[in-house]
């Protein structure tokens, strides 16, 4: 007797929880120190924020105004950046260890060829352990508290997503083994496997109909 399998595949999609990081502004000023020791603001300088807590990546750049000031509306709390400054007539400058909430940064640059560093050059320079700028401010107590709360949420979400992945793997395995047993006319084993898949996450509507339908086929064929 030909066995009809109602559904031979199952797409399991359980949405992962996404946490949106809080952001705080970062502001500062770029000043050129001339050979005679005087300092002047650098207008129209390019300021590029590179992520340094991961191996690659950068956020959209900013430019200084006519008084040398720059501003980023919001950098994510918990991430670390290096600000890379370039402009015609100056040497490129890397200002490391920047975090969200730092609003009084002064980046001093010097006269030079106006080169703009590539990301590879930036990261090579950072790997040579540039010393942190001693005047950089730290996080406020409120920001530290928010960072701790965000880290706690991140860990909870990672644990939940890991459980989801493990459950999906159990369901996929049970479904395939159940279908294989059904094709082999081993109906008792097929029913057991479909039950394993159902019990792995009985409340998830995405997989239950597939498993229940195939279980019904196995029960029907066993009764014949």
Task: Briefly summarize what is shown.
With 224 residues, this protein is an alpha+beta fold. The protein is 37% helix and 22% strand. It folds into two domains: 113 residues, Carboxypeptidase-like, regulatory domain (Immunoglobulin-like); 77 residues, Methane Monooxygenase Hydroxylase, Chain G, domain 1 (Up-down Bundle), CATH 1.20.58.
Structure notes:
By secondary structure, the protein is of the alpha+beta class. Helices cover 37% and strands 22% of the residues. It contains four helices and eight strands, in the order E-E-E-E-E-E-E-E-H-H-H-H. The strands form two sheets. Strands 1, 2, 5 and 8 form a four-stranded mixed sheet that branches. A four-stranded antiparallel sheet has the order 4-3-6-7, with helices on one face. Strand 1 (23-33) and strand 2 (39-41) form a beta hairpin. Helix 2 (141-183) packs antiparallel against helix 3 (187-200) and helix 2 (141-183) runs parallel beside helix 4 (208-223).
List the helices and strands and how they pair.
Layout: E1 23-33, E2 39-41, E3 46-51, E4 62-63, E5 69-76, E6 80-86, E7 93-99, E8 105-110, H1 119-127, H2 141-183, H3 187-200, H4 208-223
Parallel strand pairs: 1-8
Antiparallel strand pairs: 1-2, 1-5, 3-4, 3-6, 6-7
Helix pairs in contact: 2-3, 2-4, 3-4
H-E order: EEEEEEEEHHHH
Poorly predicted parts: 1-21, 132-136
Specify the overall morphology: elongated
Mean pLDDT: 80
CATH superfamily of the largest domain: Carboxypeptidase-like, regulatory domain
Biggest sheet: strands, sense, closure? 4 strands, mixed
The total number of structural domains is: 2
Per CATH, which architecture of the largest domain? Answer: Sandwich
**Computed CA radius of gyration, to the nearest angstrom:** 29 Å
What's the helical proportion of residues?
25-40%
- Beta-strand content estimate: 15-25%
Q: Tell me the number of strands.
A: 8
Report the span from N to C terminus. 10 Å
CATH topology of the largest domain: Immunoglobulin-like
